[in-house]
Automatic annotation (TrEMBL):
One of its GO terms (biological process) is UDP-N-acetylglucosamine metabolic process. GO terms for cellular component: cytosol. This is Glutamine--fructose-6-phosphate aminotransferase [isomerizing]. The lineage of its organism: Bacteria, Pseudomonadati, Bacteroidota, Bacteroidia, Bacteroidales. Homodimer. Transmembrane segments: none annotated. It is found in: Cytoplasm. Coiled coil: none annotated. Keywords: Aminotransferase, Cytoplasm, Glutamine amidotransferase, Repeat, Transferase. Residues 43-182, 215-356 form the SIS domain.
Length: 366
């Protein structure tokens, strides 16, 4: 049942190219030139008149929500708020008619997310679900939605569900932008085409598995880790840190890289590994100076870079080279090495990656 892999988590990490392909099936045409997410088309009148979007979720799904905010704002120019479902539901949130609430949940059973959906529905919002488990409670409680179709996720630490959620959010933003005319034809075609190439690029990333396993052995001593990213890769930093905490029990924190100088930089010393998502995008120069700030304080830098990068190779301690894509799709590529890093560090430490202590696959308590 683990398909020859030692753990479900590793199997699910390696399934991602196929999962993303399945997620896009019937939604992106074969030529890679058009996208249609049927729930968006069916409800376009409601969605195009939205005053704002609020995305509610917990944990890894909340990290996907942050990426969703950037995508919907970029392509559709709607205001988007992202909320922890637990905080949203307990404070009598302000919801007006015309608000659209997107609920993201792999299991479709998370108690706080379900309660947030009920609360928003009672206050008149239109509810859109993004879930994996077909027929689960959250999809049944929503007005419409899109399944991510990545198959059952058994490993407690969420992996393929995250990339599936980000893929659906990308298709959602692009379909809506097309309906709203807030995206040009050229940009639309470029992003759709690039999205259709992501499964092949993910396969290239997975070829790095052995080198990431080797790298992981070096870091089992660490008691702390910092993860940094900017823009679309800021939520990836949060997700990388969460994966490490969950399965290796190493304390890790993710930050938007520019926040370092507002406090966390005080933590940097020779014992502090810092993982920096430093692929080519419009904030590349800024991320180089962030790396220099860490090196000046003798932190150990593990950088995720774009293939062919030479600048960062000269300053970082370790580099993982990744295929190039456009900034808004980078999370689909950069998340994978961080999943593998967490997995291998946990394995080196002898931890049970599929059943980490204190965690359950779906949190049906409040
Ligand atoms: C992290 C993880 C949890 C879940 C969270 C939400 O690896 O598995 O943080 O992401 O409990 O679960 P769902 O998406 O099922 O609502």
């Amino acid at each position: 049942e683990k398909g020859g892999y030692p753990h479900f988590m590793l199997k699910e990490i390696f399934e991602q190219p196929d999962c993303i392909h399945d997620c896009m099936r019937g939604r992106i045409n074969i030529e890679g030139t058009d996208i249609a997410l049927s729930a968006i088309i069916d409800h376009k009148e409601k969605l195009l008149h939205a005053k704002r979007f609020i995305i509610v979720a917990c944990g890894t799904s909340w990290h996907a929500a942050l990426i969703g905010k950037y995508l919907i704002e970029k392509f559709c120019r709607f205001p988007v708020e992202v909320e922890y479902a637990s905080e949203f539901r307990y404070r009598n949130p302000v919801i007006n008619p015309g608000d659209v609430v997107i609920a993201i949940s792999q299991s479709g059973e998370t108690a706080d997310t379900l309660a947030a959906v009920e609360e928003a529905k009672n206050k008149g919002a239109f509810i859109y679900g993004i879930c994996n488990a077909v027929g689960s409670s959250i999809p049944r409680a929503t007005h419409t939605g899109s399944y991510i179709h990545v198959g059952p996720e058994i490993g407690v630490a969420s992996t393929k569900a995250f990339t599936g959620q980000v893929t659906v959010l990308t298709m959602l933003a692009l379909t809506l932008a097309r309906e709203k005319n807030s995206i040009g034809n050229e940009e639309f075609r470029q992003v759709v085409h690039e999205l259709s190439t992501i499964p092949e690029k993910m396969k290239k990333v997975l070829e790095k598995n052995d080198s990431i396993a080797n790298l992981s052995q070096i870091f089992t001593y660490a008691h702390n880790f910092i993860y940094l990213g900017r823009g679309f890769n800021y939520p990836v930093a949060l997700e990388g840190a969460l994966k490490l905490k969950e399965i290796s029990y190493i304390h890790a924190e993710g930050y938007p890289a520019a926040e370092m100088k507002h406090g966390p930089i005080a933590l940097i010393d020779t014992e502090m590994p810092v993982v920096v998502v430093a692929t080519h995008n419009n904030q590349y120069e800024k991320i180089i100076s962030n790396i220099q700030e860490i090196k000046a304080r003798k932190g150990k830098v593990i950088a995720l870079v774009t293939e062919g990068d030479t600048t960062i190779k000269n300053i970082a301690d370790f580099c993982i080279e990744l295929p190039k894509t456009i900034p808004c799709l980078d999370p689909l590529i950069t998340t994978i090495p961080l999943q593998l890093l967490a997995y291998h560090i946990a394995i080196c430490k002898g931890k049970d990656v599929d059943q980490p202590r204190n965690l359950a696959k779906s949190v049906t308590v409040e």
